[in-house]
Amino acid sequence: MIIVLRPDATESQIKHIIEKVESLGLKVMVSKGVERTIIGVIGEEDLLRVQPLEVYPGVEKVMPVLAPYKLVSRDFKPVNTVVEVNGVKIGSKRIVVMAGPCAVENYDLLLEIAQAVKKCGATILRGGAFKPRTSPYSFQGLGEEGLKYLKDVGKKTGLLVVTEVMDIRDIEIVSRYAGMIQIGARNMQNFNLLKEAGISKKPILLKRGMMSTIKEFLMSAEYILSNGNFNVVLCERGIRTFEDYTRNTIDISAVPIIKRLSHLPIIVDPSHGTGRWELVEPLSKAAIAAGSDGLIIEVHSKPEEALSDGAQSLLPDKFEHLMDEIKNIARAIGREI
Amino acid sequence: MIIVLRPDATESQIKHIIEKVESLGLKVMVSKGVERTIIGVIGEEDLLRVQPLEVYPGVEKVMPVLAPYKLVSRDFKPVNTVVEVNGVKIGSKRIVVMAGPCAVENYDLLLEIAQAVKKCGATILRGGAFKPRTSPYSFQGLGEEGLKYLKDVGKKTGLLVVTEVMDIRDIEIVSRYAGMIQIGARNMQNFNLLKEAGISKKPILLKRGMMSTIKEFLMSAEYILSNGNFNVVLCERGIRTFEDYTRNTIDISAVPIIKRLSHLPIIVDPSHGTGRWELVEPLSKAAIAAGSDGLIIEVHSKPEEALSDGAQSLLPDKFEHLMDEIKNIARAIGREI
Amino acid sequence: MIIVLRPDATESQIKHIIEKVESLGLKVMVSKGVERTIIGVIGEEDLLRVQPLEVYPGVEKVMPVLAPYKLVSRDFKPVNTVVEVNGVKIGSKRIVVMAGPCAVENYDLLLEIAQAVKKCGATILRGGAFKPRTSPYSFQGLGEEGLKYLKDVGKKTGLLVVTEVMDIRDIEIVSRYAGMIQIGARNMQNFNLLKEAGISKKPILLKRGMMSTIKEFLMSAEYILSNGNFNVVLCERGIRTFEDYTRNTIDISAVPIIKRLSHLPIIVDPSHGTGRWELVEPLSKAAIAAGSDGLIIEVHSKPEEALSDGAQSLLPDKFEHLMDEIKNIARAIGREI
Amino acid sequence: MIIVLRPDATESQIKHIIEKVESLGLKVMVSKGVERTIIGVIGEEDLLRVQPLEVYPGVEKVMPVLAPYKLVSRDFKPVNTVVEVNGVKIGSKRIVVMAGPCAVENYDLLLEIAQAVKKCGATILRGGAFKPRTSPYSFQGLGEEGLKYLKDVGKKTGLLVVTEVMDIRDIEIVSRYAGMIQIGARNMQNFNLLKEAGISKKPILLKRGMMSTIKEFLMSAEYILSNGNFNVVLCERGIRTFEDYTRNTIDISAVPIIKRLSHLPIIVDPSHGTGRWELVEPLSKAAIAAGSDGLIIEVHSKPEEALSDGAQSLLPDKFEHLMDEIKNIARAIGREI
């Protein structure tokens, strides 16, 4: 931690700050520069992080030196984490594709889509039973009925199921029906939900919030790990910017950055990230080329009848084409699907 | 709703779209332009909003004409809503100031701060018992103990209490202790929490999410109103931008915009919006001048000992000065505090 | 300057960095912490700023401690700069209002508008002869003809004239006709234009770029001052964010921030900043309350016939109302108009 | 163009608008909905685009239906444009790599770097003689001396030269020394520079502004094309967002979007887009996979001595590795380098 003092900081103010820092068992090193005095603090930065040093008289600003996360960092665990769910490994050489409809709408449609994506090489079925919708008047999902369909279709097709939990009260029921729990972008900083997800021990798919920095994203994962659950897969799904051609702007650099900073697997959601089906294939290829451990893609066999986000769903034949393309990319970088 | 077709849309595609629209009981008006054919839809736009028209063959884009919210809109209720909580009216000529510490830390400190802000003219006491913190290692609030302090201090000082609920399971307990429930920025799209807040009938202070448009902000309020609770006060607290001198960028134009679009009261939080105590007074003055119905301000008598966000808290004497200044502004625009 | 080393930095890497820093005549202070070694550099930070220290082996990041600007900073000149143009003082107790059409369209219209704004208390006439337009097919301004109208109307009404220069080759001609030269948002980082503006010695109105931080804004002003021209007035005119109700988001906190960091005057442009005439008055009031030294406002007597940005122009009677309102605010904060 | 009226628009207001539109030779279609009346306009939208319809009494908003650009659009020219510069084709099956130092620093270093990048397969040499720098105190480039080095080194190595022009007065001289002229991000809306670039007929590399939408980017290219120069290569180089780990956020979706909307070639600059050399390779791979026609990459053989942006420059051996990797990606998608 570096404490930069104001040009007019007095000796007694400096003394006061040093006393405070030392009272926490930390050592200081004072550097009187031409224009500013700087106090460097040696010792566990976390002890200081929770102190409101900025308000001490004479302080201009406080600059943390270390990242605030621990358990998720590659410093803590240098080798890649591989999250294994019922035999499907996420974070290994083999790239994992999750696919399915945005929302579960009815049993037959779900089965039809699941069979189609399975045939093309997807290993995880996605589909929402609880849907976070901006409008109270939009379709909100089938609830437990939808979970039942997911479980049944998963069993029938041999696909693992991932589905979103929006409400902390639903963790238990979702855990019963699904192999992997998704925490959506809007809940990335729903801290109590993160804690419960940590306690639950279920594999978690944590999506990046639309307005969250990579650092905050990792801090949210830290909530889960620090509650005892290391089975976390991260998902870049686009951030909010001024560009309005796409629904969000996929931050593809988040993939290699997270690979550097953390040992956790990272996948990309090109469907929600762009909001336009015609961009899903090129962004999927970019994600794999950048080192993504997987993809989560919306596929719908009857988008005209979809109750949610039809515009970003691929038809099964387009999905098949996408799978062929990304297999080529995977091979080119020494991975497989 | 306007449906813009692609230049190469065929007659049979156009026919297909028209049939779909008419099957919903709506009327269409087709306009064949030089470069594009456009289909205007007459009737209740909401019927179409949930249809994935973008995926119909031949469609280039779909442009909604009307705002997606209803109950919160000024079209629906032309006169200002005044939210009354135990005699305190929010949204009337008198500007309301909520003040207090970021987090409730201990009883004596809370009482000291409450007495100080009361003396200066605040009518509502703010303070968090449950704190949303980016890091799992930061102080998370006193929980129910904090709620008890708030209730007791509120009673002793005659201040109404507003405090945040982060967890849907805590609505009932927070309702018991506080006069007004705050839904924080990170939960603005926690839709189930919004629904329960609607059902609870308690006055709600809904903060704008850091990455939320004004339209989404109003849609979140719509969740509360559509569940039967019209006692909603909105709060602008800064949005996330590239500017890094302040923690967030206060969107002061949100105040007059919301006044135009909605009948609900709107207040401003200059403490969280800027993250710097020295900006709280000028931003408070700007907010009142722009038409804000109130302010929510962090005040702390010992910021050096604050367990949360000391850097944005005002000392009581600075708060007193602020109150004097905004009284002058209020008078200048024909309001009072 | 603080140099943070990687956890795996070797002794010889550290030695290499220290040698480099010392070879520049600077002193170092090495702090070996638990997790990281940090090198603090004492001496003129500017010497180091141009060194690519980030690429030295073993370096994790480099954190500058001081602001990169000098002449524009309040540290350099603690008292407010008052820019005086033909008797009009900007940056003093008296708030200055610049008003006029977006573009100069014809002589009679310009005169009519100028007379109207003069009557209401404006002291500077704004109006573009050269117009930066997103589309090559939009009206690009009258050029020198427009400058002549401005000069003549300014003389006739006793208003000082401010007008934009877009092209470095036009500085001389614009200087001949106008009392003050505007550098627009899109040219805030047109560095050669800034240099010439510095050399010209004309009073400059420098607008903040849509995507520029406050620090970059001040660095652009530094270009002008460092070329010998201290007559610079800054103008906040909105930054680009995800919010799409307004054209830009006015960052009202920029006003008090710039007042703290710099001695230069700062005004606000609520017309371009919002893009909607109905928001101009509330944002003008907010700007004055926040400490702005002035306003620049679009006024048009026949907005239906405006060739540029009619939607954000006020009618003269609305402008009159605005002037009355901000006089009240100015009085409330101890200033005048 | 769709004109949406306010709910309280009167018959005479509607009549007034219709008269205006018809006076321009356009046809209208009025649609009286349940909640709003809408006027659809048939005919050349451009005629209306320059009319300030928003200010007409009774108008709520105006929604353009068509894109505002013409010559750059794929509607105008369905086949890909291939820009050919001295035998190097940009926009064809073969991917083009431009590489070199950020700034030209001295002759020997430039030659060394040029030879290194040539050996790895680059065909165009990049390097700045005029450098846009945020600070007036940073290295501003060697000017004409640098241009001479570029020309000479280009000749010696057989590399085509691209270099930036910052000042409209330098177009002629830069044209003399370089095969291709770069217009940088900060000048993307320097409209007079764009016009002159159009008149010059030289191949232009136009970089996307940090705060510019794709639509605005294409409009800036339209300035060049509409002045007679169709030899334009577009370059995505990152936009400004709240994410602060990277200098900018590369909007990789811009590549397939521009491919859809326009016939012009598009390349990506991963060096400026990320600001960190370790991200250049993964982002390069992503760009190629997404369909980019090329890359522009900073390479420096002695980054410790670079006078500009050393932190984002690759060493020649890292560049060699990158070239190998992207060759594999190119092959996987049926292209070559």
What is the multimeric organization of the chains shown?
homotetramer
Largest sheet of chain A: 8 strands, parallel
Largest interface: A-B, 49 and 50 residues
Number of strands of chain A: 14
Helicity of chain A, in percent? 25-40%
Beta-strand content bin of chain A: 15-25%
Describe this entry's structure for a reader:
- The structure is a homotetramer of 337-residue chains.
- With 337 residues, chain A is of the alpha/beta class.
- The first copy, chain A, is built from eleven helices and 14 strands.
- In chain A, the strands form three sheets. The first copy, chain A, has an eight-stranded parallel sheet. Chain A has a four-stranded antiparallel sheet with strand order 2-3-1-4, with helices on one face.
- In chain A, α5 links the parallel β9 and β10.
- In chain A, α10 packs parallel to α11.
- The longest helix of chain A has 17 residues.
- Chains A and B meet through α6 and α7 of A and α6 and α7 of B.
Characteristic terms for this protein:
homotetramer; 337 residues; alpha/beta; 8-stranded parallel beta sheet; 4-stranded antiparallel beta sheet; 35% helix; elongated
Helix and strand arrangement:
Four copies of one chain form a homotetramer.
Chain A: E1 2-5, H1 11-23, E2 27-32, E3 37-42, H2 45-49, E4 59-63, E5 83-85, E6 88-90, E7 96-100, H3 107-120, E8 124-126, H4 144-157, E9 160-164, H5 171-177, E10 180-183, H6 191-200, E11 204-207, H7 214-226, E12 232-236, H8 254-261, E13 266-268, H9 270-274, H10 280-290, E14 294-298, H11 316-332
